[in-house]
Amino acid sequence: MMNNTGYCSESFNSLQSATSDEDMVEIAGATLDFSSTDDVPPLDRDHGAGGIGNGLKEAPKLMDFLDEPLPGVGTYEDFNTIDWVREKSKDRDRHRELDFLLYFKGALAGGIDISAHWMTDLKEGVCLSAFWFNHEHCCWNSNENTFQERDKCPKWKSWAELIIGSNDGPFAYIMNYVMYVCWALLFSFLAVSLVRAFAPYACGSGIPEIKTILSGFIIRGYLGKWTLMIKTITLVLAVSSGLSLGKEGPLVHVACCCGNILCHLFTKYRKNEAKRREVLSAAAAVGVSVAFGAPIGGVLFSLEEVSYYFPLKTLWRSFFAALVAAFTLRSINPFGNSRLVLFYVEFHSPWHLVELVPFVLLGIFGGIWGAFFIRANIMWCRQRKTTRLGHYPVLEVLVVTAVTAVLAFPNSYTRMSTSELISELFNDCGLLDSSQLCNYANVSDIERGSNALPDRPASHDVYTAMWQLALALVFKMLITVVTFGMKVPSGLFIPSMAVGAIAGRLLGVGMEQLAYYHHDWVLFRGWCSPGADCITPGLYAMVGAAACLGGVTRMTVSLVVIMFELTGGLEYIVPLMAATMTSKWVADALGREGIYEAHIRLNGYPFLEPKEEFSHKTLAMDVMRPRRSDPPLSVITQDGMSVEEVETLITDTSYSGFPVVVSHESQRLVGFVLRRDLVISIENARQRQDGVVSTSQIFFTEYTPPQLPSSPSPLKLRGILDLSPFTVTDHTAMDIVVDIFRKLGLRQCLVTHN
């Protein structure tokens, strides 16, 4: 028999005993409690995980398990895998379809965006007219600020102005500095404390676990109501603290929590794990849709990156759910720009074929950065799991937050939120821009009638901004390594994009100055004449962001679609494709795993990677258990075995199920029975059926043979027998067997001979 590795059931005695509150499992570096099933209950609450047969003491009666299904039979233990073939067979006679409209996920994402923007600005000051306004909204309503100082308005006061009455001088700077650090520490402390106290599963990105769950694994409580509530609150706190993390990855987890809770309202999805995972695939698409304002990219992300089983009907359902969620988000208008996209760009000049060379260079940088980040982050997370560092999650978060805040405040590009930084880096400088990045020389001499500004020499402010960006690049690259994986909600999309956007902007400004001062070079001759708008640094930032995100996650198609939906830059799809493919090739050459696959392996989740190729030239007989030198395979005969013999077999072995054969001599396969179903059925029969004792015979046959009057009552268990288990012959090539496990989602496969 061949098992999908990693799925080991509990012993018979452990299934009989109540689960202790001290039963803890190490997952993602945190000590998590799987004993409580209140967060996400089993498929049938009549049979809890605490013990077999609780609450089932009824009047004794003869039971036929084929006609009267038992509570708990057909369900799965926590930290176990589902049987896709079995789950699909449950639903083959159902024809009623039901679509889920996850529209409230869009409203939830809008609330997270608005709250995070307000709390991020709260670290620097407060709006006197309405404290719930962030800096931008506060100044919108002010008629007293000038165009030159439109970011400064009388209604917005810094903490130094409120406390000491002035915003000028070193003491005011120190006061703002201290308040910034204090607010950051407060937000991060609240986030990690709530996660640790109420929902340990709310930490991290959630995408590695979502991928594992969608492949058929069960983690009770990971998609429950407590996780949803705590992750939503702590996500706002973590982002507002200024840590180098994003909210886009955790929003996928939040969306899947919403989808899972909705599944419990409908029997069709509550009692069928395979159908539930179709809904979760659609929910993952919704999460990306509301995170970036990219509904098509969200569907492709679910298809390419997280989903294990994605039938055609799930595709259009995901598209419809993402559409509804995006429409809801647009109606809330959390970005305040009347647009759905997060970073809207409007470049005024097309790209030239020669620019593919620097775009490819950005792809190489993204691949190298991605490989470096994955290795460094996994090394740090392994240290967290294997040393005393993991025993102090609150202290770790506070120390990293303090270091981040202290180093970030002096640099304006690290002090601002990461989303705001990316938006500024993507921006194409115009006449109305007051950013230091756009403070070129001789701007006043340019004709005001044109929107497109020609290439012009960089001023002292631009060079200062370049040095600040270079320092911000080093800071972001290092601090993100230790931030991702801490015990707070932490996404990786935005920090990775920020690293690439900074590198791209630096390269773009360099190319722009090169074209300005050397427009007569062969490289620029013919398409970059003096006074023309040749190079767009914001485009380089956008391409760099895609390259670095692709190097870390190894996404390709979905990433390109997300990027042009995210920015509205459809005509720049070729540079995005070139950089994304280059980053993937370079990163794959340095390491085959993306960040999510690496964390799946680090946490020991049983996940059969569908993208890997199986190159070993072996047969099924070389891999199956038992080996030739092992004891014979543990089997159950279809008749002739007593309850005591079956219970002994369950106690002495740890297999998740047993083949049922005609007899020990014949070994002809009849079916397959799961260990959990056997335990539950025997225990229920002892309590609810008269005359069932240890010497009672167990029958898996269709008809029970006549019994002697003095014989104890027999036990008929044909109802829990899988009569069509998947089998292969012993000479089947292993690459075919592995492909079968991947595409059918098998839990085990029986190997037959003759």
From TrEMBL:
Its main location: membrane. CDD domains: CBS_pair_voltage-gated_CLC_euk_bac, ClC_3_like. Keywords: Antiport, ATP-binding, CBS domain, Chloride, Endosome, Ion transport, Membrane, Nucleotide-binding, Repeat, Transmembrane, Transmembrane helix, Transport. The chain crosses the membrane at residues 100-119, 177-202, 223-245, 251-267, 279-303, 353-374, 394-413, 465-486, 492-511. It is a multi-pass membrane protein. It comes from the Eukaryota. GO terms for cellular component: early endosome; endosome membrane; Golgi apparatus; plasma membrane; synaptic vesicle. It is found in: Endosome membrane; Membrane. InterPro entries: CBS_dom, CBS_dom_sf, Cl-channel_core, ClC. The keyword Lipid metabolism does not apply. The keyword Nuclease does not apply. This is Chloride channel protein. The lineage of its organism: Eukaryota, Metazoa, Chordata, Craniata, Vertebrata.
